[in-house]
Each structure stands twice: as C-alpha cells, then as structure tokens.
Design brief:
The complex is a heterodimer of chains A (255) and B (245).
Chain A lengths: L1 E10 L2 E11 L4 E5 L6 H9 L6 E6 L2 E2 L5 H8 L2 E4 L11 H12 L4 H14 L15 H13 L5 E5 L7 H18 L2 E5 L3 H7 L2 E6 L2 E6 L3 H4 L3 H7 L3 H14 L1
Parallel strand pairs in A: 3-8, 3-9, 6-7, 7-8
Antiparallel strand pairs in A: 1-2, 1-4, 4-5, 9-10
Chain B lengths: L1 H16 L6 H41 L8 H41 L2 H7 L4 H12 L3 H22 L5 H9 L5 H26 L5 H30 L2
Helix pairs in contact in B: 2-3, 2-5, 2-6, 3-6, 3-7, 3-8, 3-9, 5-8, 6-8, 8-9
The chains are: A alpha/beta (255), B mainly alpha (245).
C-alpha cells in the first residue's frame, strides 16, 4: 500500500503539485487521470522517488520515503517496477537481455535460473519468439510487453505505468490493460497507472484519482465516475462524443 | 553564475561516479566493451592522422631549415620533439574529443531522452557509476593509443623525410636520438592521462544533464566537443608550465 500525504512539488516558480493526499491499495489497479499538464507525470515520478517533494511525505508499506537513507531508498526502488511511456528498453540489449538485466544486477542466481525466470515472464506477457530480437526490431505493443516483463521479473511490490497504452491500437491497448490487471491480482502488487485512455478508466479503474492543475479534484472507482456530478471530471471523461452518448444513455436508463 | 553552477554539478557528478559501484562481473564486461568502442575503435583514425601529421612536420621543418650550416639531423630532432611533446598527446586528444566525446554525449543523451537513465535509477542503479565509470577506466588505455600515435607520427616523418628527399635516413635517425630526455615521454603520458579523464567525463556530463529531445542531443554533442577542447587546451598549458616550466 502507498499512502501519499499532502505532497507539494515545484520547479522554479511553477507549483506543479499542490497538496495531494491519497492511498493506493495493494492488489488493485489505481489510475491517475487528468489533462496534459495537470501534474500526473510529476506525481508518478514523486512516487518513484525520481523527484523529491518539497512538502509532504510518501509511505510505502509503513516506510516513510523521507526518513530513508540513500541506500535504503535504492533498496526500496528495487521493490518497484516501472513501465515507461516510451518503454525505455535498453537499445544495446536484446529482449532477453533487457528482461534479464535486473536479475543479473541484483541477484546471485545462476545463468540457468535467470534464463528460466526470463522465459517464464516473457511467456507470461505472451512473448514467445522475441528473445533474441533487439528493441528496434519489435513493434510498439511488443516493446510495452517487454517493458512489463522487465518490470515484474524481480517480483516487485509496486508497479508504476506511465501511459502504457499511448501509441497503441485499441485492441493491443486492451490486451496491455488486461495484462497489467491480471499481473496486479496474480502477484498482489500495488499498481499505479497514469493514463489518458478512457477505455482503461472504464475497464480496469478500481481506484481513480483525477488531478486538475496540481490539485486532487476527485477520487473514486470506475463505477462512481459514471455517476459523479463533478463538472471537471465529467468534462474530462465525457469529452468525446461516444462517451457523451454513453453517459446520456446511462442517465436515461437511470431515470 | 550559470557556468559556476555547471562546474559544481560536474564535480558532484565526478563524486557520484565512485559511489555505489555496479556489480564487478557486469562492470568488467562494460569496461571491455568501452575499451573496444572508445580505444580500439579510434586506432584507425589515430594512426592515419599521426602518420600524415608526422610527415607534414618533417616537410615543414625541412623547408624552413635551408641554411647549409644547419645539419639535416635537426629535421629528425624537431619531428621527434614536436610529435612526442605536442602532436601525439594534444592533437590526438582534440581529435578524440570530437570522435569519442560526441559518441559519449550522444549515446548518454539519447538514453536520457528515451528515459533509459530513469529506468536505471528506478531499478536502484547508480546510473552515473554504471555509465561513466567504465568510460573512465577504458580511457586509462588511452596512453597506449598515444604511444602508437608517437611511433606512427615519427615513422610518418621518417617516410616523408627519406622518400621526399628532405633528409637522408641516417641523418634523420641520428636526429631522433639527439639529446633525448626521457622525462619528455613521462610528461607526455601525464598529460595523456589527464586528457583521458577529461574526454571521458565532460562529454558524459553534457549527456547526463541535457534537457529536451533529439535536436538537443545534437546540440549537447557540439557543446561537449567545444568544452572538452577548451579544457584540454587550458590543462595542456597548466601542465606544461608545471612540468616543464
């Protein structure tokens, strides 16, 4: 579980995060949504420890980040997996090399043990014949799956995803969403996903945090988001004609 | 103020390089890979340039020594001194700042813009140590490249002098052996080690702390080359004053 307590973050004169507090529960897919520039990525980077908030604190299963030494912070990061927006695979390594990298770096496993684990996670993300390919030789969806495999290979307690569906076709986007949700349940991980994708919100948003101009505007579940009267949320979620019609149908049905 | 901040950040980066080292088996393979890319990959251009620079130094010296009272052996002497003291260590280092330096900045800069460095940090890896330390260690092999540059430069001078008809082979070789001061080689290697450190760290700094996208990677490479060259030239002056002055 991750507890966020009143965090503030600024860059020069720009106050990006303005006192955000929330809780992300274990075994759930937690989504952070909001318009571009609302502070989602900065919020995620604060959760990852890449940015340090000026005020407030973040607590990971009872451990306050601010109280940890540099070495303890590095150890905590080894419990985190991250899927970057652009996948961030190492260009010089094969798919197998990318997934094996954390194992090679932090465990004392034999080559055979590492190979077994890599084969297992690549199979788990439905990548069978791509072991020896380089990132430049595979598609965007495959890169995302490799990034997920790399993120889960060390059995992390926390999984963070920055717009995992960006640049993917709707079918692949749904596959990635389902995969992340399955993994979250299977390994009981605390998963936090930054997204713009309304399909993800509706499909896997067990907890949704809506940010606006650096503030927490709303939080709830994917069922509650249908019913909310918060104007900022409805303007954002139902900005497309399709979702406007869906909402209209829902309201008519309710009445 | 901006420059002072950059200098401060550079020294913090150098300190970070030696903190929380990467696992030795991985570091060893990274070092060997960097030696291959930074040193062996540069030997061709170093040999090519040194050979012709040595030849040009010989021809120019010969053309300027047209008095019959000056022995031809001085052509070999001047070539040796020029190549050992300046051309091999300093000129080669400027070339390396362009070739190796821009490679280092662009490779690290690309990792930065594609979030690969963030990925390392998130895994709990000291990205500065992982990326920069192997380059510093690999560049410790740079004096061997400069030794080759010295040899090939003098060889180029001998070829140009002998086959160009500027100095008979015996006279040229006699000049090469004239008043040889072994400390000049030591001085040259001391400079080379300092330049190697500069070539490994300044371009890394520009790659690690760049901001923006692909266009900025190109700009950072150019800036890195300019600053690496400036620092090499200034430290060349200071070292020469300290060691020979």
């Amino acid at each position: 579980m991750i507890e966020v307590e009143n965090i503030h973050k600024s860059f020069g004169d720009t106050h990006v995060l303005k006192g955000i507090s929330t809780t992300f529960e274990q075994g759930k897919t937690n989504l952070v949504i909001g318009q571009s520039g609302s502070g989602k990525t900065v919020f995620l980077k604060c959760l990852l420890g890449l940015f340090e908030p000026e005020q407030g604190n973040i607590c990971y299963n009872g451990k306050y980040y601010a109280d940890l030494s540099t070495d303890q912070r590095r150890d905590l990061r080894q419990e985190m997996g991250m899927v970057f927006q652009g996948s961030a695979l190492f260009d010089s390594m094969t798919v197998e090399g990318n997934v094996m990298f954390p194992l090679d770096m932090f465990t004392r496993q034999t080559k055979a043990e590492m190979q077994d684990r890599v084969d297992f996670v690549l199979e788990r993300v439905n990548l069978i014949d791509a072991h020896k390919k380089f990132p430049s030789e595979i598609s965007g969806g495959m890169k995302k799956r490799v990034a997920i495999a790399r993120a889960i290979v060390m059995n992390p307690k926390y999984l963070f995803c920055d717009e995992p569906n960006s640049g993917l076709d709707p079918k692949t986007a749904i596959l990635i969403d389902n995969l992340i949700q399955e993994i979250t349940k299977e390994y009981n991980i605390t998963t936090v996903i930054n997204t713009h994708d309304m399909n993800s919100v509706m499909e896997i948003g067990e907890k949704i945090l809506f940010l606006k101009d650096g503030f927490k505007e709303w939080e709830g579940t994917n069922k509650e988001i249908f019913k909310t009267d918060n104007e900022a949320v409805t303007n954002f979620v139902y900005s497309s004609e399709l979702f406007k019609k869906v909402r209209q149908m829902y309201i008519e049905e309710r009445n | 103020m901006k420059y002072l901040e950059a200098i401060g950040k550079y020294f913090i980066m150098v300190y970070e390089v030696f903190k929380k080292p990467t696992k030795w088996p991985i570091m060893r393979s990274l070092i060997l890979k960097e030696i291959d890319e930074l040193i062996f990959g540069s030997l061709g251009i170093i040999i090519f340039i040194s050979f012709f620079i040595g030849g040009v130094v010989t021809i120019q010296t010969a053309l300027n020594l047209n008095s019959p009272l000056i022995p031809k052996s001085l052509i070999g002497f001047a070539t040796r001194q020029s190549v050992i003291l300046e051309f091999a260590p300093t000129f080669t280092s400027i070339i390396m700042a362009g070739k190796v330096g821009s490679y280092i900045t662009s490779s690290i800069g690309t990792m930065k813009v594609t979030e690969q460095i963030d990925a390392l940090e998130v895994m709990g890896i000291n990205s500065v140590n992982y990326l920069v330390f192997p380059k510093i260690i690999a560049m410790l092999a740079y004096p061997f490249a400069v030794a080759i540059a010295m040899y090939v430069g003098i060889l180029g001078g001998w070829v140009a002098g002998t086959f160009g008809g500027y100095a008979p082979s015996g006279e040229f070789v006699k000049g090469l052996q004239l008043d040889f001061i072994p400390f000049h080689i030591t001085y040259s290697f001391i400079k080379t080690v300092v330049f190697a450190f500069i070539i490994a760290t300044i371009p890394s700094f520009h790659g690690l702390y760049m901001k923006g996208g692909a266009l900025e990677v190109g700009k950072a490479s150019t800036t890195a080359f300019v600053w690496t060259s400036v620092v090499i030239i200034i430290s060349n002056y200071i070292l020469t004053q300290l060691l020979l002055g």
